[in-house]
Amino acid sequence: MKAFIDDHRKVYGVEPICKVLPIAPSTYYAREAQRRYPELQSARSRRDEQLMVEIRRVWDENFQVYGVRKVWRQLRREHIDVPRCTVQRLMRRLGLRGVIRGKGVRTTISDRNIPCPLDRVQRQFRANRPNALWVSDFTFVSTWQGFVYVAFVIDVYARRIVGWKASTSARTDFVLDALEQALYARKPFGADWLIHHSDRGSQYVSIRYTERLAEAGLEPSVGSVGDSYDNALAETINGLFKAEVIHRRTSWRSHEEVEWATLQWVDWFNHRRLLEPIGNIPPAEKEAAYYQQRDALPMAA
């Protein structure tokens, strides 16, 4: 209302506008004086102005996808003490809101005649260390030049994305590239066993993919047919990717555009995004805490 008066006061004057609007001229002038002289504002108003700057900053720095809960938790991580209800009130005032995930799209194309490894996970997506359980899946993005397929390999312990690939083809090579990136980045070799879990998509149960898992010393695991719950963690990461990156734009032009956006999102997801299942910290922080604690045990002994 005040903004409307500001826009039209030179033409109609403040008092005539206030006669039409349900606001007293004195109220308008008091608000205008507070704007020009911040010391006239109440302590709460001054605090709100400061908090709105921080809320906007946190929201902008995190892909503009955080809702009230995530913004509030990030502020607390930065030692900014603010009630959640205040964050909710100020985000509403600023017109900020988080993204909402939609229903996923089924991409698994399986062949029931192909022999598959056993399901060694049984929907228990938990791990007591990094490089104990990886899950893999892919999704697709429609662009002006056709479909782009994006594959992810996720380490279950901290939900960290350890490998990914964007491709215009959904053949086995594309998911193999994501696996190779994960193997190169993590180097999961040694006495500790690592399970690789996927759905029954033809790419993941292909001979080439299965042979590469065996060569790398990974134990294959495959869920049931047409059941997203048997690869639920990977489906969740796909859903977050679609909601936080892909669905926030009306269209994508090319493979390169999707690939660059995915690169930026993966870096943010791994190092800055707060994940509730691991204690509202980023995946990289969760893993760093694990290794710090592990390395401290011999010293304590």
Write a structural description.
With about 300 residues, the protein is an alpha/beta fold. The chain is about 50% helix and about 15% strand. It has a five-stranded mixed β-sheet with strand order 3-2-1-4-5. A hairpin with a 2-residue loop joins strand 1 and strand 2. The longest helix has 19 residues.
In short:
The protein is built from eleven helices and five strands. The chain has helices at 2-12, 14-20, 25-36, 43-61, 68-77, 84-94, 172-186, 207-216, 232-244, 255-271, 283-300; strands at 133-143, 146-155, 160-167, 194-198, 218-222.
Radius of gyration (Å): 25 Å
What's the SSE pattern?
HHHHHHEEEHEHEHHH
Q: What's the number of helices? A: 11
The largest pleated sheet is described as: 5 strands, mixed
Q: What overall geometry do the principal axes of the alpha carbons give?
A: elongated
What is the CA-CA span between the terminal residues? 68 Å
Structural class: alpha/beta
Uncertain spans: none
Question: Strand percentage, roughly?
Answer: 5-15%
| Average pLDDT | 87
Question: How many strands in all?
Answer: 5
Binned, the helix content reads 40-55%
Across the major sheet, the strand order is 3-2-1-4-5
